[in-house]
Amino acid sequence: MDAQGSGFRSEHQAYRTLLSPLAVGRHTLPNRVIMGSMHTRLEHMDRPLERQAAFYAARARGGVGLMVTGGFAPNHDGLMEEGGPILVDLAAAEALRPIPQAVHAEGSKILLQILHAGRYGKHRSPVGASAIPSPINPRLPRPLTAAEVESTIEDYVHCAELAAHAGFDGVEIMGSEGYLINQFTVERTNNRDDGWGGSVEKRHRFAVEIVRRTRERLGSDFLLMYRISAVDLVEGGADGNEILQLARAVEAAGADILNTGIGWHEARIPTIAYMVPRSTWRYAPARLKDVVSIPVVASNRINTPEVAEEILASGQADLISMARPFLADPLFIRKAAEGRADQINTCIACNQACLDYIFRERPATCLVNPRAGRELDFDAFSPPAARLRLAVVGAGAAGLACAVAAAERRHAVTLFEAAPEIGGQMNYARQIPGKQEFNEMLRYFSRQLALHKVDVRCGQHPTAAQLASEGYDQIVMATGVRPRRPDIPGIGHPKVVFYPDLLSGRVQAGKRVAIIGAGGIGFDVAEYLTQGGPAHPDMASFRQKWGVDESISSKGGLKPAELEQPARQVTLLQRKPEKPGRTLGLTTGWALKSSLAQSHVEMLSGCEYLQIDDAGLHLTVNGKPRLLEVDNIIICAGQESERGLADELSALGIKLSIIGGAELAAELDALRAIDQGTRLAMTF
Ligand code: NAP
Ligand code: SF4
Questions:
Q1: Which of 29, 517, 433 is nearest to 225 (CA)?
Q2: Selection from 607, 555, 562, 645 nearest residue 185 by Cα
Q3: How far is the CA of 448 from the centre of ligand 2 (A)?
């Protein structure tokens, strides 16, 4: 173990700043990376403490010098939901001990996050600074009395004491994202006229007193990180001067580190989803650096060591907080330090298996890394009994995941792909504006295939006889899907284009387009068409489109959006009577819908398709006849399994495994494909 206790030496010069130690309070951190707080819901699984300890220990082993737990409520009013994490008594503190112990055993440090949900609490009695409801919670909060404000501050301090008792190195006080402390700090949610509202100082007092009293009671060795809302992105939020004033006050009250949060949960601007360009929010922590002398942390949409290094080297922050990137790859830091950054499994900001799972009350994992949060389950797979010869047919997400995981287990793997390149449906996804992170998935898989010496044969369509004759021990069919061809009169008309032909660039669409099918791909295709093709947004165009005021001179850091004319006039259609978009991701779908609304995309439900001809698409909408005079009709009507080869092999009596879309086309996405491919490989 090296001097900083991170278990390996930080030798790589490309990330010199990122990997350099930093003195914080009375502690020295081995590098400039914090693993930010994540709600994982692992506490709702079997063996909850063992699972959490394994989860954090894996990240500590991978080089994270400082990490933060998910939020713990300091009292019952502060719960996010009934049964959520809470730390109010000694017994609970004792029970948490295995978590810091496991992290310390790996030479890392861990803070417990104290989070009072305030008016975001999804339980019977949410409280707030004032009785002002949130647009994302139907329950009206009860305003805390002055006496309750005092007792709530005491509850924060007591919670910090319990964290210390459990062995944590300190706490993060969650003051951003629109939770209780943030509700006190701004006019939007605080109209009190007592000692806790009115002037800016009084609105800030709740935050400052929590920090001051925690420092006073816990002493100077205890790490105290405060997470400030560096920009609220809601009307009635703080302006830039108020934020700087709070930062100074929190430092003076005794905080060691100023972490930053971006935007409230009720903000109508995406802050961490894939369509947000990397490091968009760096301007917000940069402003704080000018007014405080404690380290400032940058966060949100930082997912590679290059981006992190660049922000630090530019002097805009002292530390980088990343959360989801450590779900995607617990070895992120270690790989960067060892000159293996090209082997990092990059978080693609899809939210599908982390935040979307959490909002559906499922324990988080990761689309690109099914082991995340399931460390104990994967540890339980037996090691391979012998080295097998494996054929995987199809290099889409399922086939790639299976081939790589099997090769990691030292099996000899041959991967066949009919197309000239690997990637399958991912090659279409990465053409969608804002979905450029899919390129990272392909980079990762390509590198792993090479590293583990998988014999990749692109442009090859093996026959059943060939596979049978080559004597493989296991054959995996991951031949994927083909687009469904709906039975509509005129489906063969030249105006009709199937989505792979559009997204591969083989066909260009005209100016007026109808899309048949409003699933995930129909929505993505609508975005592609209105944005004019595969151009990914840059920071400036993102801020313009969503109305982000970089100077934060306005309340909440907002300004009017500047919308560009859409590249095409698009109508998105579905047969079901319900509102389109119900299958989209919970935490990303609203932003996609909002983007399409900005581009004037017309959405029609209750459609019956009658005929396609030179005039366009004839249909009825809720029984009323209509003609869409369009140049093209793009078919995004789902997929069917491509499994002819599998059927042939089965007919020859050859044992095989079928995974991904080849097994079941319905609702296939990369999440299911990668999980299934990886888990199958673990059984070989
Ligand atoms: P999908 O979500 O199943 O949507 C297919 C659409 O086609 C539906 O709107 C369906 O609605 C319509 N349809 C089905 N059969 C039809 C027929 N015979 N004639 C006309 N319309 C028909 O499939 P997808 O859009 O291809 O997406 C595939 C998978 O990728 C899904 O699991 C999806 O979740 C995932 N994905 C997600 C995202 C995202 O969340 N952003 C993006 C891309 C892909 P009606 O039957 O009502 O018309
Ligand atoms: Fe990142 Fe998606 Fe994994 Fe979440 S599920 S950590 S957003 S790659």
A1: 29
A2: 555
A3: 19
Q: Is 110 left (phi over 0), alpha (psi -120 to 50) or beta?
A: beta
Query: Do 625 and 663 fall into the same domain?
Result: no
Rounded to the nearest angstrom, the distance between the alpha carbon of 521 and the centre of ligand 1 is 6
> Please, how many CA atoms are within 13 Å of residue 348, restricted to the half-sphere of its CB?
24
Domains identified in the chain, total number? 3
CATH for 396 = 3.40.50.720
Domain co-membership, 530 together with 445: no
Residues 283 and 311 in one domain: yes
Are 663 and 635 part of one and the same domain?
A: no
Query: Do 568 and 657 sit in the same domain of this protein?
Result: no
Kindly report, residue by residue over 170-204, the tens digit of the pLDDT.
Answer: 999 999 999 999 999 999 999 999 999 999 999 99
Dihedral sign (CA 332, 333, 337, 338): negative
Ligand nearest to the CA of 369: 2
In short, whether 497's Cβ falls inside 6 Å of ligand 2 is no
* 189, part of any domain: yes
Query: Which of 487, 502, 575, 590 maximizes ligand 1 atoms within 8 Å of its Cβ, making it the mutation to test the pocket?
Result: 575
User: Closest residue (by CA) to atom 13 of ligand 1?
Assistant: 637
For atom 6 of ligand 2, which residue has the closest CA?
324
* Identified catalytic residue from 56, 179, 274, 428: 179
Residues 119 and 237 in one domain: yes
Q: Judge whether 512 lies within some domain.
A: yes
Number of the ligand 1 atom closest to the C-alpha atom of 580: 9
For the domain that residue 568 is a member of, what is the CATH number? 3.50.50.60
| Res 12: pLDDT | 62
Would 490 be classed as within a structural domain?
A: no
179 noted as active-site residue: yes
CA 354 to ligand 2 centroid distance, Å: 6
Task: Please state, in angstroms and as integers, the Cα–Cα distance from residue 621 to each residue in 374, 570, 593, following that order.
Answer: 46, 16, 21
Q: Residue 6 has what pLDDT?
A: 43
Mean pLDDT over each residue of the chain, to the nearest integer = 95
Q: Residue-wise over 421-460: b if at least 16 C-beta within 10 A, else e?
A: ebbbbbbbbbbbbbbbbbbbbbebbbbbbeebebebbeee
Domain that holds residue 64: 5-377
Please tell me whether the overall predicted TM-score, pTM, comes out greater than 0.90 for this model. Answer: yes
> What's the confidence (pLDDT) of residue 537?
85
pLDDT averaged over consecutive 10-residue blocks of the chain (684 residues)? 43 86 94 97 95 97 96 97 96 97 97 98 95 95 98 98 98 98 98 97 98 98 98 98 98 98 97 96 96 97 97 97 98 96 97 95 97 97 95 97 98 97 96 95 98 97 92 95 97 98 96 97 97 87 96 97 94 97 93 96 98 98 98 97 90 91 88 97 97
Tell me the CATH number at 146. Answer: 3.20.20.70
Same domain, 646 and 537: no
491 within some domain: no
474 with 505, same domain: the answer is no
